[in-house]
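queue> holo job accepted (nicotinamide-adenine-dinucleotide)
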Amino acid sequence: MSEVPEPQEIRTVACVGAGVIGGGWVAHFLARGFRVRAWDPAPDAEEKLRRLVDGAWPALTELGLAEGASPESLVVLPTLAEAVEGAGFVQESAPEDLELKRTLLADIDAVTAPEVIIASSTSGFPMTDMATAAENPGRLVVGHPFNPPYLIPLVEVVGGEKTERWVVEQASAFYRHVGKSVITMDRELPGFIANRLQEALWREALHMVAEGEATVEQIDTAITDGPGLRWPVHGPCLTFHLAGGEGGMAHMLDHFGPSLERRGPG
Ligand SMILES: NC(=O)c1ccc[n+]([C@@H]2O[C@H](COP(=O)([O-])OP(=O)(O)OC[C@H]3O[C@@H](n4cnc5c(N)ncnc54)[C@H](O)[C@@H]3O)[C@@H](O)[C@H]2O)c1
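queue> job finished
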């Protein structure tokens, strides 16, 4: 096996699957000055992909492009094997279908140079379940982005049972190098972290609507004009720490804990 490339040595990324998320990754990597090789089996994929990149480019330009960044650094290849040729990192963003991911990740693994990490954008499948058909599951890792990946910084990185530890570390380092905010998880968790939190809120919203406790409009306003304004600055834990005044989280829990317990679930 050739030497594993350091994140800063990688100049070319392969994007497999170029829809909403794959296209968003393509735009992000292009804006960071990478050469991007894409493959997607849909007949109109290239046209759609170039439209997505063109649509994103004004915002990316305003945010600041890396030196030499250009949409012309994108090449769309007719086969998977050609797309991964010479790539230093592979990002898979095919449809969320477990069987499809299993087969596709095994196919990518079969045609990609052995020292290259292969990351999946999956929104929720554990890599342990997706890696079962691949010959080299050690280099497969989840790199879960948020839509659109060229604007929302977060990527959650997590390996499967067979993913090698250095792959999780190296993928995290690569995403950081390309300007992402990275959470490196040390265990597989359904929904990872951010979706798990979003879904908890969403479940409560559905419950309140179903019970007639709040309207859809009230729920949206409750977030957009309330805690939603705080969340870009600090997350729920820091928010509640500040709500405790000088006593911080400890005072907050002493003060509100009993009433939270009384309210109970549901
Ligand atoms: N949409 C989101 O908000 C979001 C957010 C984070 C992660 N994801 C994940 O990203 C992945 C892609 O989702 P999306 O929203 O971009 O879907 P999408 O339907 O927009 O794009 C999927 C693309 O994959 C292509 N494709 C179909 N079969 C393929 C194959 N065998 N090999 C390669 N490509 C194939 C399709 O032609 C299409 O262009 C999924 O795993 C999804 O869970 C989505």
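queue> Residues 194-263 form a domain with the N-(1-d-carboxylethyl)-l-norvaline Dehydrogenase; domain 2 fold (CATH 1.10.1040.10).
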